[in-house]
Amino acid sequence: MKRSPLPKTVTPLADELLSGWLTRLAVTNHCEVDELLAHIGVDTRQVAMLDFEVEVAATTAEKISIAARVASETVQSLTFGTMTQTEALMTAQVAFQSCPDCSRRGIALKQWRKLWAFDCQICGTRLLSILIKPDRSRISEKLVRRARSGAGMLESAVTSNCANKLRRAMRAATYAKALKSVRADTAFALQSPRPDVRLFCLAAIAAAQSRPLVKAAMFSTGLDGYARVALLRAFEKEPRLLAAVDRIVLRNRERLRRAGV
Ligand SMILES: [Zn+2]
């Protein structure tokens, strides 16, 4: 069956996500995205699933490209494509944050799915959880500043493919997540809809850059059982570091005891 192009088309933006662009295309053509896909003969349960198809099936890309009058390669380039294990770990499967300004215009970027993404790369506005309305008054500017710095460090660890930096960052985030009593994986904590959890984990990455042991130990002064297990888990592959943190914790406790606190 020969299908004709859609009445109107929109040009994909740099770094735009396929599902987001298809949604904008649907809006421009006054229909729902499901209707649009059905109309052009693409069979998928959810438009978001197309984002992760390593290579959108050639026939699917072809159908979309004819309908939207863009090159088939352009359609392919809007998916996440082949990712390394680290990239996959650092990319959220579902949207967890968005730019309050750009999303109003129907835009969705690949960048927003990165666990380290902090500010919108189009307009610079801070990305916000799409699930929980942030209570801005409760979040200190200092925490936001530190979290932004930690996010930058995580990004640099991932993009420079530096295993040591990444390990250090994830260890700090693992520990921070445990202090917040979050039992999910660290990667999930970094995409937590709860801004206090996400920001705290990112801030810990920045804190761990300078004097990681002292920072970890400071956090640990009032360790309860669960945090203690978390500490063990965060440092399990580094018994030497764990022992050092333990020594600092004990010393701090002793000092506090002597000071009569
Ligand atoms: Zn934006």
Offer a few descriptive terms:
TniQ, TniQ domain-containing protein, 261 residues, binds zinc ion, plasmid, mainly alpha
Total strand segments: 2
Percent in helix: 40-55%
Question: Outline, from the CA principal axes?
Answer: elongated
Question: What is the gyration radius calculated from CA atoms?
Answer: 22 Å
Show unreliable segments: none
Number of helices: 12
Backbone structural class: mainly alpha
Which small compounds were modeled alongside the protein?
zinc ion
How would you classify the quaternary structure? Answer: single chain
H-E order: HHHHHEEHHHHHHH
Work out the count of structural domains: 2
The biggest sheet, with number of strands, parallel, antiparallel or mixed sense and barrel status, is:
2 strands, antiparallel
Distance between the termini: 80 Å
* Arrangement of strands in the largest sheet: 1-2
The overall average pLDDT, rounded, is: 84
Keywords: Plasmid
Protein name: TniQ domain-containing protein
InterPro entries: TniQ
Domain TniQ: 9-119
